[in-house]
Amino acid sequence: MRNTRVLLVLALLFFLGVPGLGLLNVLHRPLDFRDYHTVYADAQSLVQGYDPYLDRQTQIDQAAERAKGMVGPLPRPGNWLMAQYPPPSLAYFVPLSYLPWKASLATWLIISTILFGLAAFSVLNLYEANASLWPQLLLVVFVAGSIGLPRQGQPSTAAISLAVIAMCSFIKNRRIGLGACCLALAITLKPQVAILFLPYMFFMGSRLRKYALAVIAMVAVFSIPGFLLIHWNPASGNWLGEMLTNIRLAGTNGLINDPAPANVDSQSLMETDTIFYTFIRSAHVATILTEAFCGCLLLVFALLLLRTRTGFTRDRLGVATLSVLSLLPLHHRAYDIGILILIFPALDWLTRQSSVLKYISTAMTLGVIILSHYPLPHILHVSYGSVASVGLIRFLLVFRTMALFLVALSLFFLMILGLWSRRRLPGENLQITP
C-alpha cells in the first residue's frame, strides 16, 4: 500500500496548492473565500461588542446608541452577512479574527488541509492489508478532487475531517479518547455535519456507549467559551431568536438556501426536500414529507444495526451508510460531500464480493466523484430552467441529480447492510492495515 500512500500525499499537495494559489488574488477578489470571510467577520463583530446576528447597518446604529457620551471613534463591524453559526462555533474563530485577513485565511487553509489529510490517511488505514489498487486509487482521486472544500475556506472542512478521524478511530478501536474529542469538536463547530454520528456510537458496543456519553459532556464543555462570549456581549441578548430568523430567512423567498425550484442556487443543495419541493408547492408539506422519508430510512438503518453484532465489516458498512444518510434530512451544500470519504472503506470490502456488486459499487463511487465536482448542468452545458420550461422529469434528472443520487446511494448501502445482516454476504475479515 506504500505506492498508494505516495499518491495520496501528491493528491493532498494538489488539494493544498490550488486554493493556496488563490491567496495571490485575495486582495482583488476577497469573496473567493466568502464562506470563511463570513465567520471571520462575525467573530470580529462578536469580540468588538456588536451583534453578529444583525445586519451591518443595524449593528452600527445600535452601537452608536450605546456609545452616546463616549469619546473616540467606534470600531466598525466587519460582517457582510448575518451570522447563522451558533456562538460555540464562532468562538473558535475568535483567535483567527485578530489576525489580518490574509494571514488569518492562510492559517485557516493550512489547518483545514492538515485535518483533511489526516482524515484521508485515517480512511486509507481502514482498507484491508491486501486491498486491491482500484479502490485505493478512487480514494486518491476523490481527495485530489476535493479542492472545493478549502477553496471557499468552508468551516465544513474542519468539521468533516474531525468527524472522519473520529469514526475511523472508533472502527479500528484505537485512540478512542482522541476520537471522542474530535467528534465533540466537530459537533461544536458545525452540528449538522457530525451530529448523527453521535447516536451511532450506541450501536458500536458497550465501550463506545460510555464514550458517547463522554462526547455529550465534551460538547457541553467545548460550548462554554462561545456562551461566555455571547453572555458578556450586551448587544447579543436576543441572539438565539435572531440566529433562527436568519436561518429561516435564508431558506425562503428565493434566497441562497431556498430549496424551491424557483431558486437557481437550489441545484447546489443536496437535502431531500429539494426533490419534494419540485412536486409540491407547499413548503410545510414538503418539509413533513422529507422528515417522514428520512425518518423511515434512519429507522430501517437502526433496525438493521440491531440485527447484527458490531465488528469491522459491520461498522465499515454502517458508517458508510450513515455518511450518506446524514446528507439527506439536514441542510447541506456541495462542499459537505466530503463526508462521503467514509464510503471508501466499504468500497474496499464490496470490490471483493460478486462481480455485480463490485461493478455497481464502483459505478456508485465514480458517480460520487464526478457529480460532486462536476455538476450535471456544467457537464451538459445547460442553463437553469423552471419546471414548466424544461419539464418535470428533465428538471429532476438535470437539476436535482445530486439529491436523487444520494437517495439512490443510501438505498444501495441499506440493501447491502440488509444482505450482510442476513448472512447473504461473507462475514468478518479482521485483517486490516496496522
Give a short overview.
Keywords: Cell membrane, Membrane, Transferase, Transmembrane, Transmembrane helix. This protein has helices at residues 2-22, 34-47, 56-66, 87-91, 94-97, 101-124, 133-144, 148-151, 156-172, 176-189, 191-194, 197-200, 206-222, 224-232, 239-250, 273-279, 283-306, 312-325, 344-350, 355-373, 376-380, 387-390, 392-399, 401-421.
Structure description:
With 434 residues, this protein is an all-alpha fold. The chain folds into 2 domains: 1-250, no CATH class; 263-421, no CATH class. 65% of the residues lie in helices and 0% in strands. The protein is built from 24 helices and no strands. The longest helix is centred in the N-terminal third of the chain and has 24 residues, at 101-124. Mean pLDDT is 78; it is low at 66-80 and 429-434.
Task: Name some characteristics of this structure.
mainly alpha; 2 domains; 24 helices; 65% helix
